[in-house]
Amino acid sequence: MIPAMPASATSHRHRAAPRKGRFSVVALRFGRLAVAGAVTALILLAGVWASWGTAQQVMLTKGREQGTIEVSRCGARTCSGPYTPLSAGSTARARVVIEKSVAVRKGQTYTVVVKPGGTEVVRSGPAGVLYAWVPMGGALLLASVVVAGGLGRSRAGWVLAGSGVALMTAAFLAI
Length: 175
Hints:
The radius of gyration is 27 Å and the shape is elongated. By secondary structure, it is of the alpha+beta class. The N and C termini lie far apart (66 Å). Helix 2 runs antiparallel to helix 3 (125-132) and helix 3 packs antiparallel against helix 5 (154-174). The protein has helices spanning 8-11, 19-59, 125-132, 134-149, 154-174; strands at 66-70, 73-74, 78-85, 93-99, 109-114, 120-123.
């Protein structure tokens, strides 16, 4: 305060906002938090949904056919090769199909689990589990931006981002 100014000149700055103004600020803040929380939950749920289709095949292997595939041919989207059973009750197949990715190369042999009712297989073991959860890692990264920016929780955002990066890095290293 400048000494020549009366004390009442600065007091209007520290006056409480009218009740109507405070309510709208609180309502806007609540709305922003609710929307950001809902978007975060939707992103994480979509990550689990995208991962679970493959992850359940790899993680819940009891009663499923397990074996190996020797990749002999690769097309634009899939690779194929003969299947050799490793589990009891599994039958050999002349040709099974696995999704083509950076993790599958022609001439290599991989441990796999046969999806029920078909000739499609997915990688098993630690590499298969980590690879199945890669979409969840991407969802964690995306959700971290919403949590840090929309919810204003930067530490939680960093934790989510670190978890996503760790998951995707572990999958990359395991493959």
